[in-house]
Amino acid sequence: MTDDLYDIAIVGAGPAGLAAATLAAAQRARVVLLDEQASPGGQIYRAIADAGASRIDLLGPDYAAGAERVRAFVGSGARYEPNASVWQASAEDDPHYTLRYTRDGGSRALRAKRLILATGAIERPFPVPGWTLPGVLTAGAAQILLKSAGTTPAVPVVLAGCGPLLYLLGWQYLRAGVPIRAIVDTTTPDDYRRAFAHIGGALAGLPTLAKGLRYLRTLKRAGVPFHRGARAFAIEGDTAARALTFDVQRARQRIDASLVLLHQGVVPHSHFAWSLRAQHRWDDAQLCWRPVTDAWGELDVRGVFVAGDAAGIGGAQAAAEQGRLAALGALAGLGAIDAARRDALAGGPRASLAKLMRIRPFLDALYRPNDEHRVPADDAVTVCRCEEVSAGELREVVRLGVPGPNQAKAFTRCGMGPCQGRLCGLTVTELIARERGAAPSAIGHYRIRPPLKPLTIGELAGVADQAADAPASAPPAQPHAAPA
Amino acid sequence: MESLFRTDVPAGAPRVTIEFDGAPFSVPAGLSVAAALLAAGARATRTTPSGHAPRGPYCMMGVCFECLVEIDGVASRQACVTPVRDGMRVRSQHGARVLRVVAEGPSR
């Protein structure tokens, strides 16, 4: 156990974490920012510090905006811990928080008076037949590849699903000269009708809307085949993807593809907040859980803040504003600034955030994922990829009386693998809700326990060694060698 | 097998050599192991512990754990968050992991 005590520790170096660290350090707080990657930026600005001008141009202005955010952070004086895989946030050392993480094969720990969790978003699970086959990746994964050494498809690619990221990736591929075999879009005229009920907010977010339309127009002008209103996706293949099949107006279509990129939006990655037993609520518009916070992003676990997409999907610009607000909330809690100063400094971010969030209801309605792509009707579809639990096995235990995800986990091992339910949690909640005729909020979510990342026994032993050298107040190493 | 992905780095950019299931591959330095394997033509990088189903990289950001491989003798490393290193030996994983008993000394 090291005796480093920080004012504020931040997890995640995306737009929210960078903005929070930059602001807090400018107010002379002792700040540390931990991140899993080798360089700052999160997934959205991934590898921006190493990207050349041509790659930045290829990826577009939203990526380019990250350079300034990263520069501001690097010059802020906050300590930066790259390659840090945080596996526990603990309140055992009240009133301080302890973060445990692995770096360079060894386990380390630090303490902080306030925590800001800026762990971003993960892609929504896309449980359809064949989604586990090699050659099926998420659109986000493909974009991460594009940002690392300009890795692009070497075979004709099919992009399937819905949402801004899917079209952005298509636009970027077009600019990179990647052959796109087809874009298979689930958005229907009904989605447009529903979305236009929120057109007022969309007009407030006109630049965002215009950008999306520009991507779509460019793709169409380039002659990329578009299939609209697609439903009932399935990927064919024995040992790897061979084709994507889907329905358009009840006619089955089939497109040969050894590379299929799926996407149907992103959802908060809030495993840390879950592990701290923070209260969450089900968001019917975004079809996901989000942690319950106050206006500064503080959880009902006092002293812990959530900022950015981890608190609910708002996009990169909104995330930066939320990062600033969380930093101000944390600074005021520490007594580093008084409430009047906090409120004065919050004026700009709050106004900007309100404006940025006005387009969300429109986007949430337009890109609402299909029911059948969230809860598979086909009992054979794998829901839990780690433990290979099918929708049918889950339905069976629900019929036997299992009331929620934790009991389903005990009976089927669903959610018990290394991803700890990140790839099945939402599906399981919604599937049980549907089977029981209940609301997802009444069904709940898996109980998440540390370690949030699998550890080797050697890494755990490293913690034990440290603990033995530490003062008597130091906690023992976690007894679990694998996620519960 | 035909590679699903290719990298785009300048001709003189630094490269490293890694071994995947015994075969050497020259890949750009700085790449993740998962990206390198995809560019090298890998499809399945493991089979699952219970159903022996083929799996490959899926999320590329460390959350799905589909890209688990053995790296330099250590099983179940996340290929997508591990950078390549010259001389790295990567092996695909098949079925369940077995705990290897090391007679003496630390295992790593």
Describe what you observe in this structure.
The complex is a heterodimer of chains A (484) and B (108). Chain A is α/β, with parallel strands linked by helices and 484 residues long. Chain A has 17 helices and 22 strands. In chain A, the strands form six sheets. In chain A, strands 1, 2, 3, 4, 5, 6 and 20 form a seven-stranded mixed beta sheet that branches. Chain A has a five-stranded parallel beta sheet with strand order 8-16-10-11-12. The radius of gyration of chain A is 22 Å and the shape is globular. In chain B, strands 3-2-8-6-7 form a five-stranded mixed beta sheet, with helices on one face. The interface between A and B is large, with 49 and 43 residues.
Helical coverage of chain B, percent range: under 10%
| Proportion of helical residues of chain A | 25-40%
How are strands sequenced across the largest beta sheet of chain B?
A: 3-2-8-6-7
Protein structure class of chain A: alpha/beta
CATH names the topology of chain B as Ubiquitin-like (UB roll)
Report the sheet with the most strands of chain A, covering strand number, pairing sense and barrel closure. Answer: 7 strands, mixed
What is the helix tally of chain B?
Answer: 1
Question: Can you give the mean pLDDT of chain A?
Answer: 93
The secondary-structure element order of chain B is EEEHEEEEE
Parts with pLDDT < 50 across at least 5 consecutive residues of chain A: 467-484
Biggest sheet descriptor of chain B: 5 strands, mixed
Largest interface: A-B, 49 and 43 residues
Instruction: Summarize model confidence as the mean pLDDT of chain B.
Output: 90
Percentage of β-strand residues of chain A? 15-25%
Structural class of chain B: mainly beta
**At CATH's second level, what is the architecture of chain B?**
Roll
**First-residue to last-residue Cα separation of chain A:** 24 Å
Q: For the CA atoms, what is the radius of gyration of chain B?
A: 14 Å
What does the oligomeric state look like here?
A: heterodimer
Low-confidence stretches of chain B: 104-108
The count of DSSP E runs of length 2 or more, i.e. the number of strands of chain A, is 22
